[in-house]
Amino acid sequence: MLVLSNDTYLNSLLSKLLQDYLEQTNSSAPSQAVSASSNLEIIYVLLIIGLFGFFTVGVMLTNIRARRLENSRDPYNTYIATDIWHKKDREYFQAKLIENYKLCCVFENQLAVEQPSMQIPEARSS
Predict the structure, then answer these.
(1) pLDDT at residue 2, as a whole number
(2) Which residues cross the membrane (predicted)?
(3) CB–CB of 71/77 below 8 Å?
C-alpha cells in the first residue's frame, strides 16, 4: 500500500508540473519575451560568425599579398633554386666518408684466425 500512495503522489505532482508548464507556454506575454531573446541570440551568433569570417579573410589576403611580393631575384629564392649547395654538400659528405675510411683500421687476432692445418679438439662424452 505504501508504494501505491507514493505512486499516486508522484502522478499528481507530475500532472501539476505539466499543467503549470502548459499555462506558461499558452500565455502571450512570455512568448514575446522568448522571441525577443531568441532574436538577440541569433544576432549574437551572426556577429561572432562575421568577426571570425572577417579575421579569416584578412589572414588569407595578407598571406596572398606576401606571396606576390616575393620576387624571383630574391636572394632566398635564388639560394633555394640553385643546385650548387646540394652539390657542395654531397662533395663534403663524400670527403668526410673517405677521411673516416682512411682512419679506420682492423686488428687481426692470430689465435682466433681459422687454421686448416690444425685439428680442433672435440670434447668426448663419457
Answers:
(1) 44
(2) 42-64
(3) yes
